[in-house]
Amino acid sequence: MKGIILAGGAGTRLYPLTLVISKQLLPIYNKPMIYYPLSTLMLARIREILVISTPEDTPRIRTLLGDGSQFGIRLDYAVQQEPKGLAEAFTIGREFLGNEPCAMILGDNLFYGNGLANRLAAAAEAAEQGLATVFGYYVEDPERFGVMEIERMADGDRNFRVISLEEKPEKPRSNYAVVGLYFYPAGVSERAAQVKPGARGELEITSLNEIYLREGRLTAQLFGRGYTWMDAGTIDSLRRATNFVCMIEQYQGMSISAPEEIAYLYEWIDRQQLAESAARYGNSPYGKHLKAVLDDRVIF
Predict the structure, then answer these.
(1) What is the pLDDT of residues 210-234, one digit of tens each?
(2) pTM score, two decimals?
(3) Deepest in the core among 69, 72, 239, 246, taking most CB within 10 A?
(4) Which residues, in sequence order, are CB contacts of 199 under 8 Å at separation 6+?
(5) Per-residue pLDDT tens digits for 19-71
(6) What are the Cα distances from residue 8, in Å, to 74, 204, 212?
(7) Which domains are present in the chain?
């Protein structure tokens, strides 16, 4: 199982903040934004990840994350010359993916909730079995998003059957937005190559998902009560994401999306490597948290 973080785009909705820095390097509370999608893929136990960004931002992100060895993973990098749509990530990453299933997450998406790792594991298992999985989140303004119409597959089953998909519909058939996290079986690059530009001139991820829908191989999970999804791509959503992470970390004493902590929990790095990371961050709150993990003062 491999992963892709799509961290491209110009970030124009965040101007002037993003005039000279990648959106994915902006802070959400005490960590760079890209730590959050990276941690989500790691929670799915994905250890080979391709980061796709712009020609200008790819070197900056590489400077931050390196080869991933400090997280017990391997990071590769690729350039998206211009934003041609989310589905293009799979043709850019064709060689990296080979013939393996994968997950793709957008670089400005944050996910949080008890049991998230189990949800991700279920989607990864489905991908290994040839099924694609999208995730839904109830929103009040579904016309701003890709929307899915669903029905329950079985009593008590957390998976749902997707009936229809629409990209930013004027009259949505449901309030469930398709969030920026997708799991696909092997062969997704070939299907992405079949996608034609939509009305916006982009290779829409909805069009790719519709291929799996027509094949009868698309399922959905819903993030309901107890789960949080945020797209930190605007000034207001960036502020809300920062406030949310600050509240959780200060009131619960837990860190959200600390890659080194996840790596240590999964035994991808040892105590010495965690200690080196803690020392690298110095006396910052993040560094102090890693030291607390090292001293067994944090209960997983």
Answers:
(1) 999 999 999 999 998 889 999 998 9
(2) 0.94
(3) 72
(4) none
(5) 888 999 999 999 999 999 999 999 999 999 999 999 999 999 999 999 999 99
(6) 20, 15, 25
(7) 2-132+180-269 (3.90.550.10)
Q: From 52, 88, 81, select the one nearest 195 (Cα to Cα).
A: 88
Q: Do 1 and 128 contact (CB within 8 A), yes or no?
A: yes
Instruction: Supply angle C-alpha 82, 9, 87, rounded to 5.
Output: 70
Long-range contacts of 153-160 (CB under 8 A, 24+ apart): 153/219, 158/119, 158/122, 158/221, 158/222, 159/122, 159/126, 159/219, 159/220, 159/221, 160/136, 160/219, 160/220, 160/221, 160/222
Distance of CA 233 to the CA centre of its chain: 13
Name the token pair of 185. 């079986």
* DSSP track, 191-257: HHTTPPP-TTSS--HHHHHHHHHHTT-EEEEEE-TTEEEEE--SHHHHHHHHHHHHHHHHHH---SS
